[in-house]
Amino acid sequence: MLTLYTWDTPNGAKPAILLEELGLDYTLERIDISKGDQHSDAFRAVNPNGKIPALIDGDLTLFESGAILMHLAEKHGRFLPTEGKARAETLSWTFWQVGGLGPMIGQWGHFSRLEQKHDYSIERYLAESIRLLEVMEGRLVQVPYLGGEEYTIADMMSYPWVVGGYRFMSKASPDRLSPLTAVRAWVDRVGAREAVQRAEARMKAKD
């Protein structure tokens, strides 16, 4: 029995994408972070850190999106190479997202939405987010996916952040993002996958 605790955010979408790619049945428990549901005692019993997503898989409880995706990929033997260069590159790009791309885009989004603008913070996080997307561009001009020739959890980790972040950052700095043609092609390639579309639809559904 799989239960995914999540909300419609980039981090929250990552495990839903993999669950759909694997074709697994799962219960989706919506944790409305706009209402503070993540701080409830019931959810803290699942994730003591009070953040989405979290997953219950039988007698296992996992939190942190990277840990959830690695667990599911290894358990089901898909989307994470088992050895060698392909595994090393997939894990490198997976944790590149965890430690860099997500936090930087997230901080830019936070500061750019504040009523009282702090120009230094906005520019700092925008510049670092664009730098990371340029790093991604350099990778994707060489191979079709972040892990290499095959679609992996590395792509599932980054896709939700790039889709939202690229759209909003393009409004703030279109000239700096327009050269990233390989990133845009990758977004189209990943976004065309039926499992990704199912995950996106389920995340946005009201029931």
Descriptive account of the structure:
There is one protein chain. This protein is of the alpha+beta class. The protein has nine helices and four strands; from the N terminus they run βαβαββααααααα. The chain has helices spanning 10-22, 41-44, 65-76, 84-113, 119-140, 153-172, 174-177, 181-191, 194-204, and strands at 2-6, 27-30, 54-57, 60-63. Strands 2-1-3-4 form a four-stranded mixed beta sheet, covered by helices on one side. β1, α1 (10-22) and β2 (27-30) form a beta-alpha-beta unit. The longest helix has 30 residues, at 84-113. The chain starts with a strand and ends with a helix.
The number of E-state strands comes to 4
Mean pLDDT: 94
Whole-angstrom Rg: 17 Å
Low-confidence stretches: none
| Helix-strand pattern | EHEHEEHHHHHHH
Strand-pairing-aware structural class: alpha+beta
List keywords for this structure.
207 residues, alpha+beta, 4-stranded mixed β-sheet
Task: Write the SSE topology.
Elements: E1 2-6, H1 10-22, E2 27-30, H2 41-44, E3 54-57, E4 60-63, H3 65-76, H4 84-113, H5 119-140, H6 153-172, H7 174-177, H8 181-191, H9 194-204
Parallel strand pairs: 1-2
Antiparallel strand pairs: 1-3, 3-4
